TrEMBL record:
Keywords associated with the record: Glycoprotein, Membrane, Transmembrane, Transmembrane helix
Region feature (Disordered): 49-77
Organism name: Spinacia oleracea (Spinach)
Ranges that cross the membrane: 12-35, 168-190, 202-224, 236-255, 276-302, 339-359, 395-416, 443-465
Protein name: Transmembrane protein 161B
Name of the gene encoding the protein in the UniProt record: LOC110782483
Pfam family name, one: Tmemb_161AB
PANTHER family reported for this sequence: EMEI (PTHR13624:SF6), RE42071P (PTHR13624)
GO cellular component, one term: membrane
Record family assignment: Belongs to the TMEM161 family.
InterPro entries per UniProt: Transmembrane_161A/B
Entry membrane topology: Multi-pass membrane protein
Amino acid sequence: MYTLVLSYKNLIFQIILSLSLSIILYFISLPSLILQGLNTYIHPDDVNPTKQTQSSGPKVAIRRPSDQNVNGSSELRNRKKPREKLFEFDETKAQIFRLRLGDAQICSRLYFDSFRSCLNCFVVAFSCFLLHKYLILNVGESENENDNGNDNVDYDYTTSGVLKNGSLVPIVIGILGFFRVLISLFRVSIERSAFKRSERGLGLVIGVLGFFASLVICVGVYPWLFDFEFSSIDGFGKLFVALLSGSITGFLYLAAGKNARAFWLGTDQIRCNLPIISCGWFAQVIFYANYLLLGFTSLLWINPLGELLVNKNIDGGRNGVSLSLVGNVGMAEADFVKFRLLCLLLSGVLQVIALRWYVQTFLNEAVLSWYQRLHASVVPDMEYSRAKVFLHNHYLCLAVIQFFAPAALVLLSLGLSQVDEGLFENFEVACVLLPCSAFVKEVALFLAWWVSFVWFVFTSTYLAFYRRGILYIS
């Protein structure tokens, strides 16, 4: 019995970790803890319908400088013309109020259950990946010790199958978490009242283009341009990967607009000088670091840049002085592979860290709309800004899913790509039906890079349109 438990200790540890985290996350609302304390806004029709001064209650976040009276019932001074000949503007109907989100308010938002399930699956799967990496390292160390102590015993843990090394749990939970995030992203992308029909149609067209672009990469039409190999995957497998990549491309296009607007407002690119809209200096550093690291990571799998960072002569190549920098400077090829994976990991983690600031900037976008409508004319029409404030509050969790999904897809795919090879060699039927090793090592890594690359391209395109004045935030 003790020998059996010792043989399957990795699997037991994985099961205990996944079950314990699932139970803890069932009783603790992690999404509420992440979003709690954010500032949201309400834009009522009439602040003071009873014409009484409100000494208690919500405080006005922004008020026009000329508004000296709270209820705004007194007439403006120095009025020379009769009152009935002028347009009357009641400023009490234009005030906006700032509130802090609580647990009850967050749980009542649309798509909260979807975001909670995505976040819980991501936390459990990512924790299992970390434990698997730690257990594999310990297994390698114990294997070396046993080989040094007894040369007659061969402890081959890495080829003992998914049960003994415990890889079955992170593989299953990782795949389920990946498709759970993808399904949630699909649900919010087809929300009719959240996107225009033209946006959904353009997203469909871009998804088709993404399908053909990923199919070209999978087939290997340009092997000198992209550093990917799908030699162990057949034609149907490549077609499935292309379909999956095209779907992700269409979904991320619809989400990239919010990401670009959040970056544009959070870094105060419009120079509005409103502290209530822009973020602090630390959040702006996170925004810039996230964007730059995402772009740098996306370029590491493109061969011209990769060749500049790899020194092919570091392990004893030709001697002498070379005038070419390509292949003669940089790091070793094995270190470059680890460096690329580390950049992917850091970019995904940094997106998760910046999630709260992105959501806050999304809520602040409604304040900018209110501010623009308030100063657009002498008698502003506040119905548009009132509707936008309501929609931003109503679709809060929808925006959170779109901000969170790219980072979750990158980290889950990266975790799947780091699971060992040779996992299903004891299950020949499974290997015949599904190219398991290729999925774990090649397809998962390609999807992690594809999400980062597409997310960076779409965000950069939107930012270029905002910079050139083709698009604007209203």
